[in-house]
Amino acid sequence: MELDAKIYVAGHRGMVGAALLRRLQRAGYHNLITRTSQELDLRDQAAVEDFFALEQPAYVLLAAAKVGGIMANNTYRADFLYDNLMIQSNVLRESQRQGVRKLLFLGSSCIYPRLAPQPIREEHLLTGPLEPTNEPYAIAKIAGLKLCEAYRAQHGCNFITVMPTNLYGPGDNYDSRNSHVLPALLRKFSEAVALGLPRVPVWGTGTPRREFLHVDDLADACLHLLLHYDGAEPVNIGTGRDISIQELADLLAELTGYAGEILFDFSKPDGTPRKLLDVSKLHGLGWQHSIGLREGITAVLQSAEWQRATARPELNALA
Ligand SMILES: NC(=O)C1=CN([C@@H]2O[C@H](COP(=O)(O)OP(=O)(O)OC[C@H]3O[C@@H](n4cnc5c(N)ncnc54)[C@H](OP(=O)(O)O)[C@@H]3O)[C@@H](O)[C@H]2O)C=CC1
Ligand SMILES: C[C@H]1O[C@H](OP(=O)(O)OP(=O)(O)OC[C@H]2O[C@@H](n3cnc4c(=O)[nH]c(N)nc43)[C@H](O)[C@@H]2O)[C@@H](O)[C@@H](O)C1=O
């Protein structure tokens, strides 16, 4: 991928898209194309056709999607299915029609079967029922992965799919209901410390296990695969280690200095019991993660973004 190649980063304002942009800029790529969703709604087929005809990118990184945690997925089921089907179908189709040299599509660890063998290997996809709370999102993502495979088979497109585990880091979504578990608990514990709250509610039983990768590690892995992987099969991206929600809550309480009570709210869903990724294929391709969980969370808490957002917790800008 030449340093002056025209690279379209779709979803550049999101947590993953912004990390991809930072990583590409740091590597010296200087012909980067971006559009906000206000400038280009990727659900609009005609607008996407016009954009690709005008810009004719050589490479596409598709990090635009409707994304959220377990509650958002289970609440906005139709939006997660429709938006993601439309976004990926339009971008993949125009990438094929405009002869994009290589495209990176982002799947997710949560599209594997609910009770897949652990750690989950790439071949376990579609071998069992999905997790009900995010089935619409998973179906959309699986369709996107299959569309990449189909464009490769029918048109020889070099569209690769990566399967990241749960991510966190700069630019994360901290909305109290729609965010993922790590940013949600980070916000809850920080607010509890600032406001002197005696207890913090954590959803579910605390027994499910999750794997967490810093988004800067993900961006580095994506660039590595863009440069060194041209295969049809998806590639898992993770750390190969997981912790329980209880252990995560204890770690976040420690790092935020929260010493009050942690109350598990059994009325909220647990979701998938476990989704640890087998990352041996990724390691075999020459990449390993470098940011550990404790180190990564500490970096978030020490970031200027976090300091600004939590300066006045009663008016916190983390929403
Ligand atoms: N976060 C995670 O834990 C994980 C994420 N992933 C995948 O990574 C990708 C990015 O996720 P993440 O960065 O967390 O998500 P964010 O919600 O942070 O960012 C999503 C981006 O998509 C853009 N977008 C949404 N709808 C549209 C639309 N209709 N038209 C154009 N752009 C749109 C938004 O653009 P704008 O800001 O301009 O509105 C936003 O910047 C997704 O494919 C997701 O499935 C995979 C595994 C885990
Ligand atoms: C990355 C992946 O992320 C999603 O899957 P998920 O990992 O199950 O989602 P989650 O990050 O929201 O973690 C949920 C787990 O955590 C517990 N939990 C406790 N307390 C809070 C809490 O306050 N908020 C949230 N969200 N969860 C909580 C909750 O009870 C459950 O056990 C997919 O939808 C999909 O979006 C996807 O791609």
UniProtKB/TrEMBL annotation:
Its EC number is 1.1.1.271. GO terms for molecular function: GDP-L-fucose synthase activity; isomerase activity; NADP+ binding. The record marks 108, 110 as: Important for catalytic activity. It is an enzyme of class 1 (oxidoreductase). It catalyses: GDP-beta-L-fucose + NADP(+) = GDP-4-dehydro-alpha-D-rhamnose + NADPH + H(+). Belongs to the NAD(P)-dependent epimerase/dehydratase family. Fucose synthase subfamily. HAMAP family: GDP_fucose_synth. This is GDP-L-fucose synthase. It comes from Hymenobacter luteus.
